[in-house]
Design goal:
6-stranded antiparallel β-barrel, conserved putative lor/sdh protein from methanococcus maripaludis s2 fold, 33% strand, Elongation Factor Tu (Ef-tu), domain 3, 4 domains, OB fold (Dihydrolipoamide Acetyltransferase, E2P)
């Protein structure tokens, strides 16, 4: 029979390890406290509609302070006065200057040779001289005609006076019986005839004098009309000498030397360097806030100049609006045409305004809501925005100072009410 080892077994007494028990109890209490502390966050995490990594988002904090709305852009120097000169008549052009030459107002820049125009001027001048002769001849003829009419009137008056004296003599003689009554009647008839002749001579003198005046006036008007035509042709001939309208510098030459051009062809341009402006392109969204007279700053070449907006284009081209600024003081001398400068136009300046950094959330939501981040959860919150600048947006309602919001990347939220932000 095989004997077991039960006889060799011995009961061992195990003493409890107090230190180990205390460590286990402490670990259990710590885990329980951690679960209690994380429970609200865990519950919010599970309540979120989506979870997005913070690396895909951009955040900003709502602040209160000064709010400056301005437009900053690159501008180029342009001449406020830069006339382009055209050919007033067709012909061969002789240039008197070169591109870049300094010119004075009234200086001849180019000469156009137009035989047709000069010949026409000579012909019309000859016609004017002939009309002047006709006008003078009409005056002489009128004086002669007036003399003849006056002579006829004076003769008629003399005849009338003679007839009256003859009638008076016959009447006296008849009263004394010296002449028959037939002689008296004949004298009366002669008197009436002379009277009628005087009246007609007087009427002819008045009527013919008016006719002569009208003829002289007609010749005079024709001559004056011809003089106006000659004057206009003389102006056109004078314009064949193309003169500079301003003090400045020759810009671009559009033709070659001795080129034959048609009427109204471009010849050259003159730049008035004493009246320079800066042209800038403004985005359409800001152009509606831009107004004539707004203050601005123009900087370049290590200098800063004050400027004023003096012109705004009425049309939008490629999403931009052209605007021009003039220098508030004297035009700087060191600037050149088409030189690039930095331009800044101040639209608005206010203090103690609630603002946040501008981001795509304004365009994505239309400024109607923003996602406020608290304890890793982004909550969709209704807001109302005001004015916008290049880098900031004014907050009118819905947010308070210190709030942290998502300003970019909210397109991945898909308009969820809450989104968990993971690290």
């Amino acid at each position: 029979m095989i004997r077991d080892t039960s006889g060799q077994d011995r009961l061992v007494e195990v003493k409890p390890n107090r230190k180990r028990q205390m460590i286990l109890v402490g670990a259990g209490v710590l885990v329980l406290a951690l679960l209690v502390w994380l429970l609200p966050g865990i519950s919010r995490l599970f309540s979120a509609s989506a979870s997005v990594s913070s690396s895909r988002l951009a955040f900003a904090t709502v602040e209160r302070g000064p709010f400056v709305r301005d437009i900053a852009a690159e501008g180029k120097v342009v001449a406020a006065v830069s006339p382009t000169l055209y050919a007033t008549s067709g012909g061969a052009v002789t240039l008197q200057v070169h591109a870049g030459d300094t010119v004075k107002v009234g200086q001849v820049l180019a000469t156009i040779v137009s035989p047709e125009l000069t010949n026409k001027l000579a012909q019309e001048q000859s016609n004017a001289d002939a009309m002047e002769v006709e006008y003078q001849r009409a005056q002489i003829d009128a004086r002669k005609a007036r003399g003849e009419l006056r002579k006829a009137y004076d003769n008629a008056r003399i005849d009338q006076q003679a007839a009256k004296r003859e009638m008076d003599r016959n009447e006296k003689a008849f009263s004394k019986g010296a002449v028959p009554s037939m002689d008296v009647d004949r004298a009366k008839d002669s008197m009436e005839k002379a009277k009628i002749a005087t009246q007609h001579a007087q009427a002819d003198l008045g009527m013919d004098n008016s006719s002569l005046n009208l003829d002289i006036q007609s010749k005079k008007l024709a001559h004056e009309r011809q003089l106006l035509l000659v004057k206009d042709l003389q102006r056109q001939v004078d314009d064949l000498n193309v003169k500079s309208p301003v003090d400045g510098q020759v810009g671009q030459l559009f033709i070659a030397e001795r080129a034959t051009v048609a009427k109204d062809a471009q010849l050259l341009s003159v730049i008035d360097l004493s009246a320079l402006e800066v042209e800038m392109q403004v985005p359409e969204s800001f152009a509606r806030d831009l107004g004539i007279g707004m203050a601005g700053e123009i900087s370049g070449n290590g200098h800063v100049w004050k400027g004023l907006v003096n012109a705004i284009s009425p049309e939008v081209v490629n999403g931009q609006v052209a605007a021009r600024l003039r220098f508030a003081g004297d035009t700087p001398k060191q600037l050149r045409q088409n030189q690039r400068l930095s331009v800044r136009v101040l639209l608005d300046h206010r203090d103690n305004v609630l603002t946040v950094q501008r981001g795509s959330f304004v365009d994505e939501s239309g400024g109607s809501y923003a996602y406020v981040v608290r304890e890793g959860i982004a909550t969709k919150t209704p807001i109302r925005v005001g004015a916008s600048s290049i880098d900031k947006v004014e907050i009118l309602e819905g947010l308070k100072e210190g709030d942290r919001i998502v300003i970019s990347g909210t397109d991945s939220f898909k308009s969820a009410p809450t989104v968990a932000i993971s690290n």
